[in-house]
Design a protein that fits this description.
Its cofactor is FAD. With 386 residues, the chain is an alpha+beta fold. The chain contains 13 helices and 10 strands. 53% of the residues lie in helices and 15% in strands.
């Protein structure tokens, strides 16, 4: 197997790394403390091509492949998980969803401004009563006399919801038939009937704005349905496959940041007259952290490669994406836990970024499919049993 990266992949990786270390890392702690949304940074990321990496150039993106996207996500995630969360939703869920299922008119109208960073995109599937059981939604859309769709309902945990210009929304168009009655829509948040509700006070990724959104007789033009009527649930699940690669990538970045901080610390910190890195217990932790980091990165890049192949052939990559997301997120949680332990009291202090890494890592095991859901996806795909 050839592990060498192309010039384009190395270029976007370098661009992301430089921006992450110069513009994101210095402000990450302050943004975490205040919860302030990093709008200026996000717009600059758009200008660098980071908010639409896989979007073809004719729609305002960088025109690169999924491996390039994963590499860039790792770099942004290593500096701040909140920035990478915003970037992931923009790329994997919003832009990818419209590129895969939208009409030419929809791509021209709704992708360009998002891929360039001029505006921000979001994705609305979860509801207060439906998380992992996504098809148990209540939000409904019904036709009016003009043939447009009137939407009513509430969605929750919407990343970038308070700042998004456009949102991919899933709603019931044919009640009583479960997942087959769900359709997808592109929502313009400037239209009457849309309301962004309370912002969630989160444990981590605090600079990534998350809120409830509500629809009260919101009129969505017929031309803004995404894909055919009744195919929304399939669209949602397919888009989440791509999203899981984004989350795996940010988890790898988080792993790397915690690991590198720990290696530097054990070389400098002394106890009993020796650098603590010379103690076998610490050495064992460092070795295990390194193994999990490398395995997570390789599984994530494999999933990104599989997506690229699927984009060309029309195949699936759901197993590879689920494996990467499951392993990388659990690796991030374990590695950051060990990093806090290695740093001792300083790891528990906000004077160092370890406690932020630890708080941020937890969400990677939850959003875009919990670890339990990833295990279901993997097992069902492998056995063929439901």
């Amino acid at each position: 197997m050839d592990f060498r990266l192309s010039d384009d992949q190395l270029s976007i990786q370098s661009i992301a790394r430089e921006f992450a270390q110069k513009r994101i890392a210095p402000v990450a702690a302050e943004l975490d403390a205040t919860g302030r949304f990093p709008l200026e940074n996000i717009r600059e990321m758009g200008q660098l091509g980071l908010m639409g990496i896989e979007v073809p150039e004719e729609y305002g993106g960088a025109g690169m492949d999924p491996v390039a996207y994963a590499l860039a996500m790792i770099e942004i995630g290593a500096a701040d998980t909140a920035h990478s969360t915003i970037m992931s939703v923009n790329n994997s869920l919003y832009c990818n969803g419209i590129l895969q299922h939208g009409t030419e008119e929809q791509k021209q109208k709704y992708v360009r401004a998002i891929a360039s960073g001029e505006h921000i995109g979001a994705y609305a599937l979860t509801e207060p009563q439906s998380g992992s059981d996504a098809s148990a939604m209540h939000t409904q859309a019904s036709r009016n006399a003009d043939g447009d769709w009137v939407i009513n309902g509430k969605k929750s945990w919407i990343t970038s919801g308070p700042v998004a210009k456009y949102i991919i929304l899933f709603a019931i168009t044919t009640p009583g038939i479960g997942a087959k009655g769900i359709s997808a829509f592109i929502i313009d948040t400037a239209r009457p009937g849309f309301h962004a509700g309370k912002v969630e006070p989160k444990l981590g990724i605090r600079a990534s704005a998350t809120c409830e959104i509500e629809f009260h007789d919101y009129v969505c033009p017929a031309g803004d349905m995404l894909g055919p009527q009744g195919k929304g649930f399939g669209i949602a699940m397919g888009v989440l496959d791509a999203g899981r690669i984004g989350i795996a990538s940010q988890a790898v970045g988080l792993c790397r940041a915690a690991y590198q901080a720990s290696v530097a610390y054990v070389q400098e910190r002394k106890a009993f007259g020796h650098a603590i890195g010379s103690f076998q217990m610490i050495q064992a932790k460092i070795a295990d952290m390194k193994c999990r980091l490398d395995a997570a990165e390789l599984l994530t890049l494999r999933a990104a490669f599989a997506k690229g192949e699927a984009d060309r052939t029309g195949g699936r990559f759901s197993t590879e994406a689920a494996v990467a997301k499951l392993y990388a997120s659990e690796a991030a949680m374990w590695v950051t836990h060990q990093a806090v332990q290695i740093h001792g009291g300083m790891g528990y202090s906000k004077e160092m970024p370890l406690e932020r890494y630890f708080r941020d890592a937890k969400i990677t095991e939850i959003y875009e499919g919990t670890s339990e859901i990833q295990r279901l996806v993997i097992a069902r795909n492998e056995t063929g049993l439901r």
